Amino acid sequence: MSHNTFGHLFRVTTWGESHGPAIGCVIDGCPPGIEFRQEDIQDDLDRRRPGQSRFVTQRREPDQVKILSGVLPQEDGTFITTGTPISMMIENVDQRSKDYGEIAKRFRPGHADYTYDVKYGLRDYRGGGRSSARETATRVAAGALARRIVPGMKVRAALVGMGEKEIDRSNWDWDFIGNAENPFFTPDPASVAVFSDYLDGIRKNGSSVGAVIEVVAEGVPAGLGAPIYAKLDQEITANLMSINAVKGVEIGNGFEAARITGEENADEMRMGEDGKPVFLSNNAGGVLGGISTGEPIVARFAVKPTSSILTPRKSIDKDGAEVDVMTKGRHDPCVGIRAVPIAEAMVACAIADHYLRHRGQTGRI
Amino acid sequence: MSHNTFGHLFRVTTWGESHGPAIGCVIDGCPPGIEFRQEDIQDDLDRRRPGQSRFVTQRREPDQVKILSGVLPQEDGTFITTGTPISMMIENVDQRSKDYGEIAKRFRPGHADYTYDVKYGLRDYRGGGRSSARETATRVAAGALARRIVPGMKVRAALVGMGEKEIDRSNWDWDFIGNAENPFFTPDPASVAVFSDYLDGIRKNGSSVGAVIEVVAEGVPAGLGAPIYAKLDQEITANLMSINAVKGVEIGNGFEAARITGEENADEMRMGEDGKPVFLSNNAGGVLGGISTGEPIVARFAVKPTSSILTPRKSIDKDGAEVDVMTKGRHDPCVGIRAVPIAEAMVACAIADHYLRHRGQTGRI
Amino acid sequence: MSHNTFGHLFRVTTWGESHGPAIGCVIDGCPPGIEFRQEDIQDDLDRRRPGQSRFVTQRREPDQVKILSGVLPQEDGTFITTGTPISMMIENVDQRSKDYGEIAKRFRPGHADYTYDVKYGLRDYRGGGRSSARETATRVAAGALARRIVPGMKVRAALVGMGEKEIDRSNWDWDFIGNAENPFFTPDPASVAVFSDYLDGIRKNGSSVGAVIEVVAEGVPAGLGAPIYAKLDQEITANLMSINAVKGVEIGNGFEAARITGEENADEMRMGEDGKPVFLSNNAGGVLGGISTGEPIVARFAVKPTSSILTPRKSIDKDGAEVDVMTKGRHDPCVGIRAVPIAEAMVACAIADHYLRHRGQTGRI
Amino acid sequence: MSHNTFGHLFRVTTWGESHGPAIGCVIDGCPPGIEFRQEDIQDDLDRRRPGQSRFVTQRREPDQVKILSGVLPQEDGTFITTGTPISMMIENVDQRSKDYGEIAKRFRPGHADYTYDVKYGLRDYRGGGRSSARETATRVAAGALARRIVPGMKVRAALVGMGEKEIDRSNWDWDFIGNAENPFFTPDPASVAVFSDYLDGIRKNGSSVGAVIEVVAEGVPAGLGAPIYAKLDQEITANLMSINAVKGVEIGNGFEAARITGEENADEMRMGEDGKPVFLSNNAGGVLGGISTGEPIVARFAVKPTSSILTPRKSIDKDGAEVDVMTKGRHDPCVGIRAVPIAEAMVACAIADHYLRHRGQTGRI
């Protein structure tokens, strides 16, 4: 990956900070002839948008995407991709300059303030710079197109744990995730009350908490990926690790695989009724030797708690003075919630890229 | 990452299968003027070599590396890199053709046999093809050079868990890892007896078991990495995920971060006695916002149990017939053990690459 | 090069068509701390802008660049780069939909209409799509930043031939190029009358003509480039060949080198009065073995005549019908004129990229 | 292009110097299932081999290629590619150490001695380092595979000019190029006597001379390439410019296009008798807007005279002393001759890469 680009044939370059005029992305290598509606992108964007419940920040950012190139507008209002770069832009409506005062000089613990300063010798202290959660909107836009490249692919994600609380997997209901009563992207209806109480407590304490998200991609044909340095699971992992605050990723049974035996772990095979191979389990998470098996691809990742908290923490400033830093203002008590649609997008992009690469090398799709 | 290349400025391309004449790598972009001895590479290679204890396979592969280009031999037998591509080759001495019989057609559960066949339409059934553990020798050779690029950097790894057993971290002793009585790369002397008994039982059952490895890179200057799609921790993760059988990676406190609060997780800062910033903890694992903090970089990964086991497992063959597959011959009961030096190499390569990239973009080293 | 990106450490991605809402570019990898004024970019853009003489088309496109990210605005109105991606956008003010009628179906000879259609299966017939001359504005914007990366570098270009006419090199005056009386970027004052008469004739006939441009980069330090597949002259050549209508590129004495002997061609060396090596000639054009010598880098390229002409030419349409195509409307009789500032930008980008790559690999700058 | 790699999906990495143990290449991304014989590669290698006439150097280098990975040997002695990296190696049989004496310190005019030294701070003075003509053998080996990727493609090259002498194009006979009486790869039988006399004179004077080579690729499907920064003609040009001593490249009518009018230059189109579009001329050289038209692709390039000549030339040494340099030993009086098979290989690689990229993005092949 280059610094601000990911993918090889389906290449996404993003740009922008939370406090400049706009953010955006350029998608290069999208196949021609892909039909989509602006709403396809907007719907995904709206899912990650702040201001939807008391558990996510209330800034009013409409996140209205503008498509600037690479498409042919059709008479019915839809678009067709032309094969040339697709530029999408989201203007920052709420970028009024304010007094950053001490924040401009102080390094907030858990943030990238200190490391930016060391790396670049200067830093855009207005908001989180490139590390702003806002940047992720552009990934979601790219993912909305990536989803359409692999025929029959469906990529969905769910929050499966928050701090000390976990869902009950026996209650898993994908349809519940889009439910208006569900502010957590949890697939377990029974977990809503638990998470709500828990997070209210966290929020009232000015604290924050982490989360675990699971992404599942179904309908991915067998054969995508590569044996060594472009393994499908490796690139999915890299894409997920590029999301802010992610500290770990696992594929299939992940760290559990380290604790069990070879007999328990190996997924056995049989011929299905339709004459196609089937796996009797999916510990592998849909990838063997870096190449997709045709089973659902399953990835899970950990998001650290929001670093902006009301409790004062020890830090230093640019001049080396020791200070206490407390982050005022509203902040998500659990940034992991909003990572759900972002994760879907990043996984969709990784798979779409490998779909095109596989077609390029082998011609077998 | 391209299919068989990793890195951007320090680029490593590997080639070869376990049953061809040789394996090797080409390192492109190595700085000129790096001095090294052939033994520096050979020592690292010897650490991952099979045949060192009853817990790793007994094939006799001397793993003698030949350096074919990119160096100026000095009178004292050392080498100096010239800045041109360094080609290293290891001949496969034990590649005699044998009767692969049924294996050529059958898909071994947990192996990449089925996925290779679907992807490429054919497959080199002699050994594991590109997925052979043997390929990792070339990574170790590359890593031996990468270690020399970042002045003062020390990258070490240790096995911290095997199946149901874990080390006692309070016993951690880096020096014990190279001890002749330690066949496990464990840093805990007390764990040797535990792991030995446990693994003997696994081995006698014809079974296998997974492992967890921890890699620590010390002496990495602050400022390496990038905020978004080339995060230092992301590329370390990708490099580790490219090792065969790895199913999960975490940085710093990793998945634990998802379970704790923002106050617990944020690493506070103070000025050290030497006038340099210090962190009071290292939950971040040495990386904030994708950029190194100057603290030790800590990564941990899970290796699945060896897929080759003596217990018959259900599978199919190339013609769609349902078969039972049992892998005869000697196999490591825990492939994770040998992953320790490979992990060090992959982490060293990721950091060396970012060292050069940082110097290129900013000139601040 | 990827499809719409060039450069390795100084990476430029461009997007946009002449008839969409905007065009733009994203510059990734720009060093932090580079100071510039918006005017630096705008001045270069204005040099390539249509509407400046009767020899270039009269469309009114203000080409007003907006800088959307990657910079810190200073109190004095200047900018400092932050090291994050710099997004620049130029809105297309004159993009009103018109009736493209037959053009939508017909393949204009010399244009990419037919090849786009074959490649993508569809094509944006509104203007030249990605091949529009308008796209080159974004390169000029990127080049304006690239110029500032290599300390002391000056990149200038001049038109040295137009159709059958050539300049008199003994009259070469760089300062004359910016002269208000010089609509041709010619360095030879005496050539203006010659080119004017010649081009008036061409224009009145509804015809067009090609041109030869020479680019000279001074102040480039010795040591930039690479011996084999990233030769400095090779990447300069590739960058120039990516400009529309360019059909040939040569470095130094170029094709002349094929016609002379080794004694005539080799540039001899002596020590200069300042104790630095000097070359007694520069047939090599400032590059030996792909690496800069410290002498001026000299490249020359041929631009074909504008394909849009008033004379009807035989062609076919999308349905395979044979048609005659005549391109109405105003068109530059010599598109080569406008290529001059674009060429400067592309050469500046190639050298800036190699400056950073050299610093990355060797640390010797 | 990376420093020692070219191509995107069909990627070739080369390594090695003329005076190390071996040279070689790694081809990554080759489609699986390509059948070839070792002789296919060896035949191409033999065509560029020194020692075939009095006009090329007499060193005895058998250039025997070894295929080390990425293939399945078949019972009939042929190979099938597996889709994994193909490593090929050619051992340097004649690499005995000799006394380089003054050459180790002196910068030969026209060679890259000075620039290597400035760039890397040290240099492998044994032979030409990476700039050795020997490196090109590995490109020829890669090209032999590339030729097999695009069905029906035929890539041939011919020497069309040498110093002041040119062929008579009306005598063009492709079949004559492989004729045993033709030491020049000229397509004009009548030119052999002319070139022989001319080059004998040059050789006896201890001088050297340049050449112009033309490459023609037939059977390339329309639609390969990209509109902007990965134009097919641009990547062909870059590949040719990467060959040592090449100083200029042109596509189709090239520099001639700058001298003619739009009517003369535009290639008209009609429907052919087979219902397929045909072009009535091919000034474009088979590429419009960076994308292949289906017509033959035509490129031409200039090779400078061999820099190693017997006439003493002024130079300096590493310590800054002014010296005269005369290159003893046998050298090709016209290195351009040997560039012919290399050029074919480089053009074949560029087209094969774009064939796979086109298939990847569009699925239209």
TrEMBL record, chains A, B, C, D:
Annotated keywords: Amino-acid biosynthesis, Aromatic amino acid biosynthesis, FAD, Flavoprotein, FMN, Lyase, NADP
Q: Tell me, what is an example of a GO biological process annotation in this record? A: aromatic amino acid family biosynthetic process
User: Which cofactors does it use?
Assistant: FMNH2
Pathway the protein takes part in = Metabolic intermediate biosynthesis; chorismate biosynthesis; chorismate from D-erythrose 4-phosphate and phosphoenolpyruvate: step 7/7
Write one Gene Ontology MF term. Answer: chorismate synthase activity
User: Where, by residue number, does NADP(+) bind?
Assistant: 48, 54
What's the record's note on cofactor binding?
A: Reduced FMN (FMNH(2)).
Catalysed transformations (reactions): 5-O-(1-carboxyvinyl)-3-phosphoshikimate = chorismate + phosphate
| Residues bound to FMN | 130-132, 244-245, 289, 304-308, 330
Asked whether the keyword rRNA-binding is assigned, the reply is no
Q: What is its EC number?
A: 4.2.3.5
Query: What Pfam families does UniProt report for this protein, alphabetically?
Result: Chorismate_synt
What GO cellular-component annotations does this UniProt entry give? Answer: cytosol
Q: How does it assemble?
A: Homotetramer.
State the HAMAP family in the record: Chorismate_synth
Q: Which family does it belong to?
A: Belongs to the chorismate synthase family.
What does it do?
This reaction introduces a second double bond into the aromatic ring system.
For this entry, the protein name equals Chorismate synthase
| Source organism of the structure | Nitratireductor basaltis
Source gene? aroC
